Amino acid sequence: xxxxxxxxxxxxxxxxxxxxxxxxxxxxxxxxxxxxxxxxxxxxxxxxxxxxxxxxxxxxxxxxxxxxxxxxxxxxxxxxxxxxxxxxxxxxxxxxxxxxxxxxxxxxxxxxxxxxxxxxxxxxxxxxxxxxxxxxxxxxxxxxxxxxxxxxxxxxxxxxxxxxxxxxxxxxxxxxxxxxxxxxxxxxxxxxxxxxxxxxxxxxxxxxxxxxxxxxxxxxxxxxxxxxxxxxxxxxxxxxxxxxxxxxxxxxxxxxxxxxxxxxxxxxxxxxxxxxxxxxxxxxxxxxxxxxxxxxxxxxxxxxxxxxxxxxxxxxxxxxxxxxxxxxxxxxxxxxxxxxxxxxxxxxxxxxxxxxxxxxxxxxxxxxxxxxxxxxxxxxxxxxxxxxxxxxxxxxxxxxxxxxxxxxxxxxxxxxxxxxxxxxxxxxxxxxxxxxxxxxxxxxxxxxxxxxxxxxxxxxxxxxxxxxxxxxxxxxxxxxxxxxxxxxxxxxxxxxxxxxxxxxxxxxxxxxxxxxxxxxxxxxxxxxxxxxxxxxxxxxxxxxxxxxxxxxxx
Length: 554
What we know:
It is a single chain. This protein is an alpha/beta fold. It has four domains: 3-119, Immunoglobulin-like (Sandwich), CATH 2.60.40; 131-239 and 292-495, Alpha-Beta Barrel (TIM Barrel), CATH 3.20.20; 240-291, Oligo-1,6-glucosidase, domain 2; 499-553, Immunoglobulin-like (Sandwich), CATH 2.60.40. Helices cover 25% and strands 24% of the residues. The chain contains 14 helices and 26 strands. The strands form six sheets. Strands 18-17-16-15-12-11-20-19 form an eight-stranded parallel beta sheet. A hairpin with a 2-residue loop joins strand 8 (90-95) and strand 9 (98-100). The longest helix has 18 residues, at 295-312. It is globular and about 80 Å long.
């Protein structure tokens, strides 16, 4: 037994509240060690000799480690626990003090004294059923005559081109989304801004008139809801645009401005120059960073969050650059907006491990960019081997509690990365493999506008081309593939709420989703040749870049 590999940490993704009564506990050991591991629990207010044992099940492994898990209902709403490790006839115990020969009692064991509602991660129920579609409003659809200064629809974009996509255009294409199987939309910013992307907000409470009026937006939200589609807007609370009234006041009045504490200013005087003395998003001098720890900023931004819920009935916020914003603010934001709308979705843009934000007190989900990287490297960019892909997926699944993973937003492309088809070097077979896994994996799949018809595009701004509504240019087979996967996911609860596990195989990628005694096994062949797969006495031929599904009752 490799002792250095042993690990557990209470009250984290290694030990968490699974539901109102149950706990899930995980333990790590070396990948190749042959161990039998039991979770032993007892109640500190009763006789320590009264113990219950729960066998731990191996749920996965990566290049170095094996991971074990037990989910159980404690005898008395909480417990003290430790791990019993058996290697052949050798018995060890693992608790807060590490590996030892004696059974831990009280202080030497771990403790989760009581399951509290506040300790349970509880994203809105509808998120597990969501199939998202991301819309970049300026580039999706334009209804009406082109205003002066707009670029011709379909022209290759630059950083600064504006095409005039609007609410009327989006509303006109709701039937397209319904046919695709979409039931949630994530829309990038709509507030007043000078740019095409609108991440440099001038007025948070005003809708950009290039998109339409408030009445038109309310009509769009209502039309989405009538079609069974929820809408999530983009909240740009890390920074504003240089035209924002508070920043303009600071530029004018400098240290005497009543808004000087709304921004992170290193020294006065400030000016919009290359060697600026105020903090910004990246190095963009026209995007000053808001001081989200300031009470005035917090009051204002929470007011913005409430405004779009109360006035228009939106269903969620996607939080731009969320990991650069004060966490005390996010906790307050969640508390106050959830009072207003308990089923509101709060989705953070965090590109790396986001466990800190997903403990039930800040976000309901994040954009799962680890998923983007892992899936893209294997299926689209062909940079990693099957073994590396499986190892990284296992590592990702251990990064979060299972109930958190079911709410993560899984994208294979977006407005911040190249389009999936371009990543795949236009190989549609590779692309379909990635899409299949996206829809069959644990979490919420999200389709970037136009990817369903085979649109291409490199890095920004090329990935933000206008939607091509000329039907004759579409990849109809790809569109139908998306729609079939949406139908399958909606019809099969295992894909939305089931557990996820990877099965070993030398050359095929095999995984299962299980729920209520029913399992679907999916066998994927991401190779240039067909391969046979024997299962339950039946020999299956899996074609190159093809897949099969097998159902079990067990």
